[in-house]
């Protein structure tokens, strides 16, 4: 199936994330460290950066005196730059012209009062390495620059694609964008942190990515510089640039190059006059100044200075002074540059965050360090997704093996697909295929969860047997297929002809809802119905007759209703049983009366924990009713919990009246035990959480009894009823399990206890932290009870606590199993 644009963008996002994102974490971490390089080095070297005068009140040396003292020690050196701070006690930085063949000259720190050389600061060499790592990944500069440029472009891609992928439906709700829910666990917590942090840091990453691209690619830099007018702003930004002319900026290396005879040497600049000229032109409004002395005679000397109230560290003014008189020739102020030129001149402060002041730098540092968080959460999400995909593949192979082998349905033949929760639809699918095979029409049987919607187009004819779960939802295993089919837009090509048997229960508001949804989507995608959809209420025999007749007519055959592929897949046999004892469990309750029925079965009758029982109705034409089995074979009897169902006219429902009032002890019953694979108990001793209410205790009780029999003690019961005085019918069982150490945690919800009444979903939310720990420890969740209210509330609570993606993963892994009615 071809990817949608969103799927393609997701693949691109995670691919860039686990490749470039890992290296970006290194670049971001080193950048966060470099942001406070000056402060860290200063703190490591207090004696160097907090100099004291040799005598009280002594004045620092002037630039002329500093240069004279340096040249007196070594007349051969040529001073190129002198950097001074107005801050008292700060050392002077002096730079020398590079030797022939070298790119940069040496630089040293000087005592501002004596011009004596000072030691290099501790930590400076370390930060040089960190800067090389940040800018060039410790590679040669010519190689490292474009590599970091590509990584910066990858950061832009990650930021923009991440924003698109997490765009919430409630766009104007800030909580949808920025809510961090630390109650989440596992994949849901990772995704929540990843998405919210990415949104918060989005602007920072866009700025970092754009400035990184500017520095990483010379062509981009040249184009941007040229766009603002002859590259003036960019040249001003560079520490070694000189806008007065190329010859002046490259003078240090010109002596060895062939060319015309140089002009005769002139007298050295008068530094005292230059300094006084700078002080007058700047009106004393400066905090940092660099004097650039020409290596050859030049009529102009450049002074680059930062005002006391400068917008940022690169908002520098450029002053050009007459070398002989010290009078200003040209004054280029940062504030007078064009807006594009100021922007380009601000690329470094933008990259560091200082463009927005101290807070901006903190934010940019946090965003840079956050790249490490993105790398970690991204990798964890990727690895969890791989594990989930592997689990889904294992589940698919297991389903295919159970359904008869083969990884891929045979193209061209008849496909019989099924979606089942309790196994009923699967049995009907196999029975249909067997009947068709006996009539000379071979068929391949597959579960829907093992198919992609496009697989249906591989077969000219398709029969589907689909159960609805709860109030018209797809069975748990078929949810992914249902979602893919619902969003599919391209018609099935070639379009198959299909027939559909929809299984449901009329007591729910949306009868056969999933079957009708399948029918609608298949028609929308161009599939042609072989016959009208057949609805089946529970085990309605007349619906089976209609189904067989429609299928037979569509294929021009007569189906043998006794054909079956395997006795294990045939419908369970009916048993003759009798009612043993009936006990009213909740006298005085505000709710409907609840009864425990103990039923005697034929000897050697067996069933699996979590099984269902179908009891034949006393009235002809009425389908049998299903109940959860509340006991295990070792109990020696079949136990049910049956609540009386009161109709709108006040009468009792047919089956609840018959089982709880009319039938007397020893009365015969006709029933059959039905396996319930969607609610089957696990075989190992992983922790289990049992959640339910009311008569739903039946399904939980069978599981807990079997766990106790096996000695598996990591069990947790979350259960709700109305009032402890009348509805604690389960108390004896719970106390017995607790006394044996087999039920270490019980959370009860009493809905009619004022003023603290609560429901099962409330108890679940209150225990959210423990729930996440149990789930992270591999717990399997079992939910049994009423669909309306409890089951829907529990589903919403689980999605709130764990995240929808985590709940879907639990369903796919078979770690969330439900028996609701």
TrEMBL record:
GO terms for molecular function: FMN binding; oxidoreductase activity. The keyword Translocase does not apply. It holds the Pfam family Flavodoxin_1. This is Sulfite reductase (NADPH) flavoprotein alpha-component. InterPro entries: FAD-bd_FR_type, Flavdoxin-like, Flavodoxin/NO_synth, Flavoprot_Pyr_Nucl_cyt_Rdtase, Flavoprotein-like_sf, FNR_nucleotide-bd, OxRdtase_FAD/NAD-bd, PepSY-ass_TM. The chain crosses the membrane at residues 12-36, 147-167, 188-208, 362-383. It comes from the Bacteria. It comes from Pseudacidovorax intermedius. SUPFAM superfamilies: Ferredoxin reductase-like, C-terminal NADP-linked domain, Flavoproteins, Riboflavin synthase domain-like. The keyword Transmembrane helix applies.
